[in-house]
Amino acid sequence: MKNIFLIVALLYSSTHVVAQNYKLDFKVEGLADTTVYLGNYFGESTYLKDTAQVNSNGEFTFDGNKELESGMYFLVLNKTRLFDFLVDKNKHFKITTSTEDYIYNLNVEGDISNKLFIDDMIFNAERNKEASPFVQVVQDSLSTEQEVKEAKAALDKINDKVLAHQDKIIKEHPDLLISKIFLANRRADIPDTPEDEDPTEFGYQYLKKNYWNNFNLGDPAMLRLGRPIYKEKVENYFNRLIIPQPDSIIKQVNLLAKEAKVTQDTYKYFIWTVTLLYQNPTIMGLDRVFVEMIDTYFESGEMDFWANSQLKKNLKERADQLRLSLIGNKAANMVMMDKDKQMKSLYAIPNKYTVIYFFDPDCGHCKKETPVLADFYSSTKYDVEVFAVSADTSIVKMENYINKMGMKWITVNGPRTATGSYHDSYDANTTPTIYVLDEKKKIIAKKIPAARLEDFLTQYEKFHVESENEQ
């Protein structure tokens, strides 16, 4: 009977050891009888992953039966991050250090990834000391041109040492996380331009083609680093290397989404990063990308594995608000009351171009923008009418504003409407907001400053004349 019990105990013990997916032992000299935390990075955020009690000898352990994701972690004491370390292929190792200097006293047993990571931290600290006097020379406005030149040459040599140090690690340990981090931070070296090609175009095409060579969009470890490299890489790619046209961007998003779909974490992070990037784009017309993202990845149910119903509802409401006022769409009609209590229709305007101007009489920015629009209106060479929509309910306040600003165009009161709230059809949550329509009331520009209207119409007409001539 005792033998049977012993066998069962051994089986249980064996199963328990196998199930222990991570065991991180620490000893910190100078630390005793306190609580420490295991923290991890994720994108731009940090999270607490585990808790441990420090004994009187400074020893403590983080262990668990769940998977510990690869990435960069840190030790936390009293809400202070003490030092970073890596969790890579090996999830069982020991780190020792001292409170006298957490970094310089770091030592690891049983893990090559952290051995290399710690060595690299110390190596970089020494290189930073070496570079410091040369950096001061470069930044000093009193340095001579020759001194700056020599300082930059010295810094280049130090940088070469860093790259050589990294290259050695990458060559000897290509599959380790530290090598992936080194490569992810590197910029592509553009080769010499062939004689028969334009250097700018060649460089652009080379960077675009090779941008993702050293970065795996499907590797979740790239989400858990001390700097949000994943987000930076994605945003940099779309901001610098993709033509700022909705169709070009959407095509690239769909291609790269397939690469990111290897894991749920990378998939959701990639999609969310792109979605936020185009939620309020700085380039006119790219809000169409946001609408496409919501339709393709959220409304379709593709992101249901993490996006809850409230988030999807909020995203859909915003997409629907943008959807009707995208460039290329026909603007929704507005029939509203003017100061004489007459209903004025946007669609009744016969001019070649219509500028819709959403404003508020109490808006400080509007008080600056309205005179600029008035100057444009009185001096433009184009056939333009302005349909100004006051966001305030007061007709009296609107009339006073018209008189004060000398507004000679059509001005109506937004809330006094026969066609419903303009917020349902136009993205005009803030004032001032300007839209430009052509003769068919198609939206050709939106959220453009009044000061740019003349130049915009000049370029727009030039483009259309050239297009018609080509046809």
Explain what the structure shows.
- This protein has 471 residues and is of the alpha+beta class.
- The protein has 13 helices and 15 strands.
- It has helices at residues 2-19, 112-139, 145-172, 177-184, 199-210, 229-240, 246-260, 264-277, 287-298, 309-323, 364-379, 395-405, 453-470; strands at 22-29, 35-42, 45-53, 59-64, 71-77, 80-87, 92-98, 107-109, 335-337, 343-345, 353-359, 384-390, 410-417, 433-437, 443-446.
- The strands form three sheets. The protein has a seven-stranded mixed β-sheet with strand order 10-9-13-12-11-14-15, with helices on one face.
- The radius of gyration is 31 Å and the shape is elongated.
- The protein starts with a helix and ends with a helix.
- Mean pLDDT is 92; it is low at 1-19.
Estimate what percentage of residues fall within beta strands: 15-25%
Mean pLDDT over the full residue set:
92
- Structural Rg: 31 Å
Report, as a whole number of angstroms, the end-to-end distance. Answer: 95 Å
Structural class: alpha+beta
Number of helices: 13
What proportion of the residues is helical, as a percent range? 40-55%
Return residue spans where pLDDT drops below 50 for at least 5 consecutive residues. 1-19
Order of neighbouring strands in the sheet with most strands: 10-9-13-12-11-14-15
Which overall shape is indicated by the principal axes computed on the Cα atoms?
elongated
